[in-house]
Amino acid sequence: MGDISRTWWLLLVRGIAAIIFGILAWVWPAITLLVLVIIFGVFALLSGVFALVAGFRHGEQSRVWLIVSGIIGILAGIVALVWPGITSLALLFIVAFWAILAGISEIVAGIHLRKAIEDEWMLIVGGILLVLFGIILLLWPGAGLLSLVWLLGFFAILYGIAMAVLAFRVKKLAPGASA
Fold first, then answer.
1. Rounded mean pLDDT of the chain?
2. pLDDT tens string 61-98
3. Is 48 helix (H, G, I), strand (E, B) or coil?
4. How many C-alpha atoms does 98 have within 13 Å on its Cβ side?
5. Taking the alpha carbons of 73, 79, 84, 88 in that order, is the dihedral positive or negative?
6. 138 Cβ neighbours under 8 A, 6+ residues apart
7. How many CB atoms lie within 10 A of CB 17?
8. Could you tell me the residue ranges of all domains in the chain?
9. Do 137 and 99 contact (CB within 8 A), yes or no?
10. Which residues contact 32 (CB under 8 A, 6 or more apart)?
11. Which of 169, 178, 72 is nearest to 113 (CA)?
């Protein structure tokens, strides 16, 4: 339990990054495809790096799933940053598949963490939100970039809140933390 409680701040950074990303998407809804690709690429890359770091710092079974989630985020971020001129439909599919795969990884990690922490359900909720977001994007691919920006912003804020709440729950598990 000490391993996960020492990395609580990684969850908080992921949550704050997601909330900031969501707010930026709402503040500038007419954002161009290039800027959206770059913002998503940086977000996915940072989220992946923090998930990867957390995965390598854990000694439990959830380690593998956090590493998988981190690798998926890093790969999605690299693809978005290397090919910024892709069409909105291609971006939509990158975001959708990233969300589904990363969400499944986080759901599995949350299930494995049930033995280590009480409030693992927040990681599971974050994973479910990712999967639902990805499915919605796949079901309505012609929704347009503006709709994608608003939907992505809404998802990012919800996901960020779930990760921030989880971070503070996990922090309570730290040795010497007050109950």
1. 82
2. 678 888 888 999 999 899 888 887 665 677 778 888 99
3. helix
4. 25
5. negative
6. 93, 96, 100
7. 19
8. 2-171
9. yes
10. none
11. 169
Q: Kindly report the length of the chain.
A: 179
User: Cα(96)–Cα(4) distance, rounded to whole angstroms?
Assistant: 28
Burial track 69-83 (b if 16+ CB lie within 10 A, e otherwise): bbbbbbbbbebbeee
3-state secondary structure of 7: coil
What is the residue type of 119? Answer: D
Question: What is the model's pLDDT at position 165?
Answer: 92
Task: List C-alpha distances in Å: 6 to 44, 126, 151, 173, 178.
Answer: 23, 20, 33, 9, 15
How far out from the chain centre does Cα 57 lie? 18
Q: What is the pTM of this model?
A: 0.55
> What radius of gyration, in Å, describes the C-alpha atoms of the chain?
16
> Max alpha carbon distance in the chain (Å)?
52
What is the Cα–Cα distance from 18 to 26, expressed in whole angstroms? Answer: 13
